[in-house]
Write a structure and sequence with these properties.
364 residues; Rossmann fold; six-stranded parallel β-sheet
Length: 364
Amino acid sequence: MTTTPVVLVLIKGLDIGGAERMVAEAARHWDRSRFRYIVAYALPWADALVGEIESLGGYVRCLGRSRRLSPGVARRLRSLILDESVDLVHAHLPTMGIIARTVSPVPVVYTEHGIASSYRLSTRIANRMTYRRNRAVIAVSRAVADSVASYPGPHPVVIPNAVEVAVTPGAAREARAELGLAAADRLVVHVGNIRPGKGHQDLVRAAARLRSPSPTIVSIGAETYPGDLERMQRLAESEGVADRVRFLGERADARSLMAAADVYVHPSTVEAFGVALLEAMALGRPVVATAVGGVTELVKDGETGILVPPGDPDALAAGIERLLDDRDCAARLGSAAGRHASTRHGLEPMVRAIEAVYDEVLRR
């Protein structure tokens, strides 16, 4: 009699973020007739997505007992693997990948969500030193795969991120009403936590370069390091756009605000993939994005959006203005973006591709 293989999906936290969102989204399509899934995370305070996963029938365990990682996380991870007769660990992001490779008595599949050079030096060194212990590696974009190509260990298989989005017209109207915007008012939306590499300063400076009448620009996302939000607010004041650039913090209804946008902007200077960008495209929004990392695999300039150089507020402003001024162009690019997202980045095919990796590893 065969038993159903047990897969432990491991991630540092379950707050709202790109990799975390992918775990929660994937849970909708896990083939529970073939695998029994457990989700484990290490930071007890980072639990925004726990309820969503549990509502889908997921079994979620927290390994941490404090705000920071401690040696107890590794010990409890090993105990969980043994107690639940886990057959395979699927670790996301370097920190949990390093821990899993160090203590797991069963095979580790590792998903790399970031450009290797964007991590701290200590993280890069530990990731590389333990990398050969991965049984298989998944990269979310070709740019990510290229960034770890020299690491000793399995060659990465590229499985791009995917999304499913559905926002009612009523939700989009309510989002605009909350912002105090009339139907004719122009709205530019950005989603990304405030941290290095996300380009918030370029977004603020681009806002200052937009011709009058300027649109309302909202940026959705929590600050990663204390003081970063205040720094961006001060920059908006010094650029004279504090009344037009709003920082809304973390929002569970971010997709409703995206759907309400006339233009979605993605100003990152470092980007492995761009989950929020893909969500905006799936919603049929015309996008302006910087040509970095995996973004160029999503957006084809002049076909599914507008690409501009990173770190260039003038080019960012010009791209935004082009879409605001030319509604026919915006509509064409938005429609093409939606088609690209639905045909090339379906969530169920992504999950099936990941489960095929599990099958391969378990057969060895």
